[in-house]
Design a protein that fits this description.
Helices cover 12% and strands 24% of the residues. It has helices spanning 45-53, 71-75, and strands at residues 27-31, 58-64, 81-85, 98-104, 110-111, 114-115. Strand 5 and strand 6 (114-115) form a beta hairpin. The mean pLDDT is 75.
């Protein structure tokens, strides 16, 4: 792009430095029944997924059933990530699922622990 010419400079416009290209981000979706399984081979599945993929900026876990009992664990599953849960299953409530977002704290998508 070009800046407006300086007063008295005629019709010549000075080039303007291009804005920095946005940083590349990696977004992963995972369709899971539970974010924080209590036991078994799936207990650390999310951490293993991130380890296999490398740097992931945002993980969107769909159909994430999070209860009051598993909420704290779900929020701390991944070091270096902030967790945002759209729905926490209440006791004696019909089963339903929400979405859990894990945003890497040093990602361009995060600013002050908030998804931009």
């Amino acid at each position: 792009g070009f800046a407006d010419p300086a007063p008295g400079a005629g019709a010549v416009a000075a080039p303007v430095a291009a804005a920095a290209a946005p940083a590349e981000v990696v977004i992963v979706t995972w369709n899971a029944n539970r974010v924080a399984p209590q036991s078994g081979k799936n207990q650390n599945k999310l951490a293993r997924l991130v380890e296999r993929l490398g740097r992931v900026d945002l993980i969107c876990v769909l159909e994430a059933i999070v209860t009051q009992n598993t909420k704290a664990r779900a929020r701390t599953l991944l070091d270096g990530y902030d967790c945002f849960i759209t729905r926490v299953q209440q006791a004696k409530e019909p089963k339903g699922a929400g979405v859990a977002f894990y945003v890497r704290q040093d990602s361009p998508l995060a600013a002050g622990a908030r998804l931009l």
